[in-house]
Design goal:
This protein has 172 residues and is an alpha/beta fold. It contains six helices and five strands. Strand 2, helix 2 and strand 3 form a beta-alpha-beta unit. It is globular. The structure holds 4'-phosphopantetheine.
């Protein structure tokens, strides 16, 4: 039977930290479903569809990465798939409490599910979508921390200049 993991998150936007987790998870699982949460209460910078499109473009050459989105409870979404593992990245001990509560709550909602944690690679342990957005909004460089496509999308959102040769449409 195929081993499938669900990697849920806001991905607003996806960073190299997230991508690193997906790539390492693919060494353990046959398929990884990247599940973009609507997270409306977090007032995301990118719409769900924009976040999904970015991730789909980045993994377009990897058929083992499926990109989807969900609304409502994560456990309800997972129950509709053939996965029973929720994958989360841990950057530092500061992530632990939140993740521990979330994993415990999800397990109490559905005892069939487990959360698997992977430590973020040392190169990305300080990278978060929140700080990436803040730095980009203030005109700082985020190259090397997010894919070029994300850098461009951030510049568009914050109406910062993009070199003409780097411009691409949403459907490219
Ligand atoms: O990238 P994030 O914002 O840390 O991801 C958090 C996410 C989306 C995984 C979490 O908020 C979630 O699962 N939301 C869906 C609603 C839900 O199931 N909440 C109960 C979890 S305790």
């Amino acid at each position: 039977m195929e081993k499938v993991a669900i990697y849920p998150g806001s991905f607003d936007p996806i960073t190299y930290g997230h991508i690193d987790i997906v790539e390492r998870a693919l060494e353990i699982f046959d398929k990884v479903i990247v599940a973009v949460a609507h997270s409306a209460e977090k007032r995301p910078l990118f719409t769900t569809e924009e976040r999904r499109k970015i991730i789909r473009t980045l993994f377009k050459d990897n058929p083992n990465v499926i990109v989807d989105s969900f609304k409502g409870l994560l456990v309800d979404y997972v129950a509709k798939t053939n996965a029973r593992v929720i994958l989360r990245g841990l950057r530092a001990t500061s992530d632990f409490e939140y993740e521990f509560h979330m994993a415990s709550m999800n397990r109490s909602l559905n005892t069939h599910l487990d959360t698997l944690f992977m430590m973020t690679s040392k190169d990305y342990f300080f990278v978060s979508s929140r700080t990436i957005k803040e730095v980009a909004r203030l005109g700082g460089g985020v190259e090397g921390l997010v894919p070029d496509l994300v850098t461009r999308r951030l510049k568009e959102k914050f109406k910062l200049p993009i070199p003409k040769k780097n411009q691409i449409g949403w459907d490219d």
